[in-house]
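hey m, so remember when u said the tokens were messed up on ur end? i reran from scratch. heres the input so u can diff it against urs
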Amino acid sequence: MSTAKPIPEELKFYNKNYVCTHYGEPRHNRGQGMRPNPRRIGCKAQINACVHFGADWEIVFMKQNTGHNPEVGRELYQNYHEARQVSDTAFLDSVRTLHRAGANRKRILEYVMENTDAEPTMKDIHNWSSV
């Protein structure tokens, strides 16, 4: 029987690796497709954390690599779909209601821009409305 203490539920994970969105080596496509994965560019930035029980539960950083080489900026960040997502289900329900009521996507886009911090594209509005 193990004598190890179970970790508290609020910590969720025993260990966790956090890496840059550009982490990993680029894939080399074998086909003629036009959809490369531009995110993987070989960035080595990562932090590895682990839960440890000493006098109390604590988070210990086991490994850290701060060699971050990709460009960063607001304009580049807005290209990522994670930056344009809205996770508030009540708000998404109101977007769907506007769509069902006959509002066009341009008006829905204006509504979203006025009422959230998200900066979605027209394609995002189309995707939200069709779900």
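this time it looks ok to me. Strands lie at 15-19, 46-53, 57-65. if urs says something different then somethings off w ur setup not the seq
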